[in-house]
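Journal club side-thread
Mid-discussion, someone asked how the predicted structure for our own chain would compare to the paper's figures. Pasting it here so we can look after the session.
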Amino acid sequence: MVARIAGLVACLALLVSGTVSAQEKHVLVLSIRDEIDTRMARYVELALREAEDTKADIVLVDMDTYGGMLTDAKDIVDKLMQIKKPVWVFINTDAASAGALISIACDSIYMAPGASIGAATVVTGNGERAPDKYQSYMRSIMRSTAQENGRNPTIAEAMVDENVELDSIKKPGQVITFSTDEAIRHGYCEGKVTSIDSLLRQNHITHYTLHRFELSGVDSTVDFFMNPFISGLLILFILGGIYFELQAPGLGLAGLLALIALVLYLVPYYLNGLAENWEILTLLAGIALIGVELFLIPGFGVAGIAGITLTLGSLVLIMINNDAFDFSFVPANDMLLALIAALGGMVGSMVLLFAGSARIMNSRAFQRVALTDTQDSTQGYTANFNQTSMTGKQGVAHTVLRPSGKVTIDGQVYDAFTRGEYIEPGEAIEVIDNETTTLKVRKRQP
């Protein structure tokens, strides 16, 4: 009887053990298969957040990159090392530069046949070797990250610095780039695999659900609006909308269009860490100065030049990943695209303002929403509150006329304007027309 009970208990233990071992693992896969930049850093952050929310058992990084921005790679490393679940990386072809740093931050490294890892020397946006202070920073990060995950820290340093000596591992004057077999031999790869499925089988995981993280519709839309061509169109709508709103105050439609375009332009760059607060404030200040120059100050002077400079500069800075005017690691192509987008939007808005404003104002769509009827004098309308003619009367400028202001005639103050000339307070003036509520005057000749 006792033997039977013992046998039954043993069978139940085997059954429970088999059930536990066959329990499905939830594997979340995130892909680093592009340049490492602020968008990639945000993508990884969102993927890791989903891994935590869905209680993924394993986070798997599908890697194939030549690197990117060091600062963004460091952000990714910090986030990966905070994850309590196992983080594995599958290097499918390349993990160079910043990609090597991210791979070393993972708990386990697996590589495809013919893949490589290393070549982590820091380079500038032009592809030239960065100054020693950046190399020193990269060596420090590589060393500490490798040490944290139980890998040889000197090898990690040698991936950055060709002067690090490692007998029988690398030649003098070269940085380390390991092939798959070399990485396995020196402890920088746990195994050679051909796919994610074979990686999981090698770790005796046969029952699993694989979820590849993809950006949501909202996040994909954010990425869409960061396209330089779309950014250029939004700049056009921002400036054009502001102009037409000022031309027809109270209409609202043009102002609403400009506001929506401004939000769609700024929010994606802000969410991705590109648009700093000071850059946004500079953009708003530039637009304000252009408005002051166009509608409050006659001619074209300091305010207009400063406004255009601030606006153009801030639009470019918002679109590129500079570090407080440090453009060392900004690819030249990114700077060129940002400049083209900003200039294209500004030039396009100017063309729209000067060439298309009359056509838009006279269009049926505009006339349906705007009050365009005039009260003509032939129909009995008049705006002249002066019952007697003021033409020929003389007085003095009460305020500066630039070109509008106030004048004093026979002890009475009137609104007045000139034909473009400036008149200082106290100078003698003469009325040349008073058909409206404002007198048209000129400087009285001696």
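Post-session note: DSSP finds 15 helices and 13 strands in the chain.
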